[in-house]
Amino acid sequence: MNPFRDLSRSQQGILAIGAGVFGAALVALLAISDFDLTPIRTLRSVHVGGGGTVISTQYNPFAILAVALIALAVVGAFAWLIARFAPMLASMTFANIGGGSSTVARAGQRIERELSKVLELIRGHISSNDSYAKSLANAQSRLSQLSEGEQVRVIVSLLVAENERMRRDSSELKVKLEESHRQIDTLRSNLIQAEEVVLRDPLTGVGNRRCFDLTMEKAITDSRENGTPLSLVMCDIDHFKRVNDAFGHQVGDEIIKMFSRVIETSVREGDTVIRYGGEEFAVILPRAGQDAAKSIAERIRRQFESKKLTIRETNQKIGQMTASFGVAEYRAGEDTELLVQRADAKLYDAKSGGRNQVSAYGET
Question: pTM to 2 decimals?
């Protein structure tokens, strides 16, 4: 359980409100109940006449202190429960920013619970095995001391019953473990799907910026450890704003999706296509030097340039679309930011040099 100070403000708020509501409910319950609290709240009462009118009441401080301690204990237990489950409640209530992330978290929590269940089953079976082993040891000890056949028969019957119980427990354990295995496989599949959703651009289906950061980090690590080349291509659709303004954002989105498909069909297996932002894309090319990366970028450029675009509903011609490309190969010791800067600089060169071309780092 997290200490109160380690909880977020939303979680602390849930805890405080829950404890306050419970305390108020407890007081209200005592106030409207028919419980006779006189024996614990008073030390003695003095009555006169037959009507039983109380003319003097002395309160019992020890009894009142005991009631207060009980109330504090109950409220404390309730507060402990709230604090125990506040992170889960807060994540369910307040973590809708980024639904994919909360889905991943929930799937991970469910896998953790299922694994805990499996561990409990295994612990229980180990305990049963210990009990069975003790029964066998006890029977062996007793058998060595018996001489009468009837006593031996009783011990053997007990062993048969114990063995049947062990067989039944093992069978139940197998069924439960198989069910947990199926549950974990399903949850693992759900987790993989949720992670893919988190790392995918919703418009094009290619990787997003988070996917770019994770993939580049791994690609650079592999390049350093294995001594293999790594290249990055940054590409951008030429005059996209002009087309977007002339034909509308829906047509612009369709062009972006078409460009992403052209890139995906032009790269190798193992390469990663990223929508870096707007109409700009990045292509991560592990085990590719600058020349190979430039060749791939040229293939993408030619494929995109060859498209003749027309709006299907109105038969209005958009015309030829082109894209510009900047290529840079990873250098030992540099990080992702520096590699992106160098590829971006060459993309700028391609744009300023007339567009619809590939510019590689080191070329003038």
Answer: 0.54
